[in-house]
Amino acid sequence: MPANAVLHVADVHKNFGGLHALSDIDLQVEEGTTHAIIGPNGAGKSTLLNVCIGRIAPSSGAVVFDGEVITGKKPHEINQMGIVRVFQTPEIFPDLTLLQNVMVPAFAKRDGSFTVNAFQSANNQAEIREEAEHWLADVGLDAQRDTIAASLSRGDKRRLELAMGLVQHPRLLLLDEPTAGMSRHDTNSTVDLLKKFKERGMTKVIIEHDMHVVFSLADRVTVLAQGRIIADGKPEEVRGNPVVQEAYLGGAH
Ligand SMILES: Nc1ncnc2c1ncn2[C@@H]1O[C@H](COP(=O)(O)OP(=O)(O)OP(=O)(O)O)[C@@H](O)[C@H]1O
Questions:
Q1: How many angstroms does the Cα of residue 226 sit away from the middle of ligand 1?
Q2: 16 C-alpha to center of ligand 1: Å?
Q3: Best label site of 11, 117, 202, 232, fewest CB within 10 Å?
Q4: Complex ipTM
Q5: CB-based contacts of 12: which residues, under 8 Å, 6+ apart?
Q6: Which residue has a Cα nearest atom 2 of ligand 1?
């Protein structure tokens, strides 16, 4: 594994009964890069992400993060190590304000867990609050910090979830279809936001169907089809690859 690889998915296979959802998956995510994983429906993208965060155990192979094998660790342990996933359907607390939403993972990161009492206790509240305010501002939601999260638009819920991820200071951010279901306007502002993170050198893995988003952001693209890697390289190499065009780009997407 190159010295600058943050994540190495090493020869991973995953079978669901007789179905080979992932076969011979070997890929490396290098420090500071945005690595896109694309492929048609059912290609195995979500399964791969779930293997990386410990939600699905591979049938064989291993995932190595920062030089340490993380296969077999629990999702919260992997999260504590610095892999943060932002979900396709935002996992937020609808009844809490935006600020409280971002304070929850900030408390959890600091204390290893979160209880509702944390909001009442004055112990280091100011520091956590300041940090949450900083990341809300970073995603452009500072003006709405006292709004109840349930009332946000879909695009803003995803921004909120990004702030909840950033407050954890991720070593690796995994984004599962960050623009799914968004208007073109919201998609463009999300791309701008992710470009800003890229300029800061944040390492990201992104699963995305929108080719405009992929080619705007990715340094490297891995293409899956039927659970196998059919291409891996720079965006322009992948775009011109006839196998990819046949399997994916020339199809419904
Ligand atoms: N828990 C499961 N049990 C059985 N089969 C599963 C399970 N999860 C996924 N699969 C199957 O594994 C294959 C890969 O699914 P996966 O969701 O990883 O694909 P994907 O590339 O993320 O697709 P999409 O773009 O539609 O989200 C599919 O054939 C799917 O039906």
A1: 10
A2: 9
A3: 117
A4: 0.96
A5: 22, 25, 26, 48, 51, 58, 60, 61, 62, 63
A6: 16
Longest alpha-carbon distance in the chain: 60
Mind listing the pLDDT tens digit for each residue in 146-198? Answer: 999 999 988 899 899 999 999 999 999 999 998 888 888 889 988 999 999 98
- CA 105, 106, 109, 112 torsion-angle sign: negative
- Which residues 6+ apart lie within 8 Å of 215 measured at CB? 235, 239
- Whole-number Å distance between alpha carbons of 61 and 49: 14
**Which residues have any ligand 1 atom within 6 Å of their CB?**
16, 19, 21, 39, 41-47
Q: Which is nearest to 241 in space by CA: 29, 5, 38, 66?
A: 38
Q: How far is the CA of 229 from the centre of ligand 1 (A)?
A: 15
Residue with tokens 């520091």: 127
Q: How far is CA 98 from CA 27, 108, 137, 146, 180, in A?
A: 36, 16, 11, 6, 21
